[in-house]
Amino acid sequence: MTIPATMKAVVAHGPGDYRLEVVPVPVPGPHDLLIRVQACGICAGDLKAQQQASRFWGGDGMPGYCEPPFIPGHEIVGRVVVAGELAGDFKPGDRVVSEQIVPCGACRYCKDGRYWLCDPHNVYGFKQSLPGGMAEYMILPKNSRNYLIPDDLPIRKAALIEPFACSLHAVRRARITVDHAVVLAGAGTLGLGMVGAIRQRNPKQLIVVDLNDRRLALAKAFGADVTINPQQEDAVKRVMDLTGGAGCDVYIDATGHAPSVGQGLEMIAKGGIFVELSVFSSPATVDWSIIGDTKEITIYGSQLSPYCYPATIEGIVNGTIPTDGVVTHEYPIDQWEEAFAMSQSGQGIKVILKP
Ligand SMILES: [Zn+2]
Ligand SMILES: [Zn+2]
Q1: Which end of the chain is more exposed for a tag (fewer CB within 10 A), N or C?
Q2: Based on the domain organization, do 88 and 179 belong to the same domain?
């Protein structure tokens, strides 16, 4: 396969300033894999970065994360074109996915095995030094965590490995047992990725809350026992009714919307487990007295997808983690603006680019 000198890529020059450009195809070093990108999903994080959230660009008392110019995209599927001689077990032709973070290997977190908390925290697609997948080619560099996937895995399933691995980590954090009534708030891509993983843990009850009936229908098809649309009924009251007045044992927030935190604290039972994995555009404020004195709640944060790729790939391939209907739109890279707009509109669920 001949590799061209240039490629199309989405390049972020600053908040709100994203452009389709022709840029040089990166040249792999001895530790690198060069891949031809087959798909790159658009994540809520990509949207929030494009829309200038202070979480990404600094301001509102928060330090920025983005270092432009960069090529966005961390939900990557591709085929190896060049494998550096020190790049490990992969060879040209292999179809791969890569974990979104490339650990430094040297900080205290990397050294003790918590690589997903790595201090430099380099995730593809937010910094000039680590270009992402919204391009025809990209490098999976030294320390990248790459996995082989089947050639015949449909692209709409393969593109969900990264987000669904994040879903699995959140579910593992929740320590769900058969005795638990579980409320999952948010049936976007991450929430829908959790439904199958929660179902595998066989909880007493799985209740999914979302504002969008189409997403709720999918959650039901994937295994939710009950779905609630808070625009149509009082979600807290319904959960109380469904749990004999106790509230839910586990509340997982995957909404991305700050009011969900307060809703969770209201409907969670005493001694309950609260898992938070939303990325909020602004701080969520709640009454912390509920967490201690009133209910003694255990809170787990959830970040990225450590040690979750192998099980996620297996579940998606063998169908125990349902995926049908989650990817709703595919766009060529030339239509990245339409793709971002569609993703933002909420009309679809997961929108992917096929560069
Ligand atoms: Zn993502
Ligand atoms: Zn590190």
Answers
A1: N
A2: no
Two structure tokens written together for 196 = 């199958």
Helix or strand holding residue 344 (H, E): helix 336-345
Answering whether pTM is above 0.85, one says yes
Q: Could you read off the pLDDT of 136-179 as tens digits, one per residue?
A: 999 999 999 999 999 999 999 999 999 999 999 999 999 999 99
Q: Does residue 152 sit in the same domain as residue 175?
A: no
Ligand nearest to the CA of residue 41, numbered in listed order: 1
Note whether 85 and 204 are same-domain residues.
no
Q: Tell me: do 193 and 224 sit in the same domain.
A: yes
Dihedral (CA of 143, 144, 149, 151) sign: negative
* Residue 96 region by backbone torsions, left for phi larger than 0, else alpha for psi between -120 and 50, else beta: beta
User: Longest Cα pair distance anywhere in the chain, in angstroms?
Assistant: 65
Q: What is the 62 CA–ligand 1 centroid distance (Å)?
A: 20
| H or E element that contains 110 | helix 108-111
Ligand 2 centroid to 130 CA: how many Å?
A: 15
